[in-house]
Amino acid sequence: MTFASHVGLIRDVPDFPKPGIVFKDITPVLQHGPALRAAIDEMCAMSADFGAEVIVGIESRGFLFAAPMAYATGCGMAIVRKPGKLPAHCVRLDYALEYGSDRIEMHADAIVPGQRVLIVDDVLATGGTAAAAAQLVRSIGGNVVGFGFLIELDFLSGRTKLDGVPVASLLHY
C-alpha cells in the first residue's frame, strides 16, 4: 500500500503554534504502522539516487524519519540539534528566521570531510532551518547531495533557500 492512501491521516491544526498558521500534524501518521512504514519506504526510494553516505536528521521530527531511513539504506546518521543538547565538541550556527533568529549545532566529528549527506526533516516550510543545517554540514566538510521531506509547503517557497540542491518531498501542499 502506498503512502498516498494514508494522506488523510495528516490533520490540520489551525492557529498553531500561533494565530494564522495552519499546522500540518503528522502524529496520526506516526501512530499508524502501515502509514509510517509506507512513508519511510517511499522517502528512502525517492532519495535513493542521491547516493548519500550519511543521513542528517534535524531536531526533532526529522529524527523520526532519518533514523529508519539510515537503517533501511545502510547509511550512517548524524543529528542537528538545538543548543546544549549534544555532549561532545560541537560546531554551531546562528541563523535568521522570519521573525528573529535561532541556533543549531552538531558534533564537529559527525561528518567525515567529503561524505555525501542527505538532510532529512518532516516538513519543508520557509527553508531557513534546512538551509542552516546544510551550512553547518558544509562547515565540517560534508557534501550536501540532497534534502528529503515528508511534506513540502510549496506556497512558502522554502526550496529556493536550498542553493539548488535536489529536494525530494513525498507530499506537496
Task: Give the tags.
globular; five-stranded parallel β-sheet; two-stranded antiparallel sheet; Rossmann fold; 173 residues
Number of strands: 9
Quick one: biggest sheet?
A: 5 strands, parallel
What proportion strand? 25-35%
Continuous helix count = 4
The mean pLDDT is 96
In helices, the fraction of residues equals 25-40%
CATH class: Alpha Beta
Stated plainly, the CATH topology is called: Rossmann fold
Low confidence ranges: none
Task: Indicate the structural class.
Answer: alpha/beta
N to C succession of SSEs: EEHHEHEEEEHEE
Q: What strand order characterises the main sheet?
A: 4-3-7-8-9
What CATH architecture label applies? 3-Layer(aba) Sandwich
Indicate how many domains the architecture comprises.
1
Rg for CA atoms = 15 Å
Silhouette: globular
Distance between the terminal alpha carbons, to the nearest Å? 21 Å
Task: Write up this protein.
The chain is an alpha/beta fold. It has one domain (51-172): 3-Layer(aba) Sandwich (Rossmann fold), CATH 3.40.50. Helix content is 26%, strand content 34%. It has four helices and nine strands; from the N terminus they run ββααβαββββαββ. The strands form three sheets. It has a five-stranded parallel sheet, with helices on both faces. Strands 1-2 form a two-stranded antiparallel sheet. It is globular, with a radius of gyration of 15 Å. The mean pLDDT is 96.
